[in-house]
Design goal:
The chain is an alpha+beta fold. A hairpin with a 6-residue loop joins β1 and β2.
Amino acid sequence: MTLEELSARAQIHDVLLRYCRGLDRVDMSLVRGAFHKDAWIDFPESLHIGTVEGFFDFLAEEMPRFVRTMHSLSNSLIEFDGPDTAYVETYLQADHQGSERHHWKNQTVKLWARYLDRFEQRDGVWLIARRRLAVDWMYRYPKEGWFDDHPDASVGKRDGTDPSLRRVAGFGGTPIVEQTAAA
């Protein structure tokens, strides 16, 4: 494996992670940053098949209808087809708690699926050129099964207070001092 391949793998992996973070924090700039401008999306017909711009429109409407989501990636197989193309299969588990505005009406649904991506390197940047979602199965959890035993530690809210949105250390490992309200 060459140094260029290792670098490409790391870049591709980072794109996948930023995409999931963008979904879970409803940060469409992170989601947009995962795709080439002319990318094609092949999700189930009931969600979106078409241009990436249409996909962003769909997500901008859909994601705020959830109380919270958590997208977790696991196995990711990256196969290169030349120096500028990679085919990537990534396993996905995602939990979605619908709000009153979502058709799941406060129920939580778990999705097991795979992203089937064609990544292309253009101008030195690896991004998704084509994405297909292959759904393996889904499960709807009963409402009465959920509870929060530690509400003071719960951070899944989408109100901008999630601690992951604040940097805790600089690149050199030096902690960034947070300013207090008194300062």
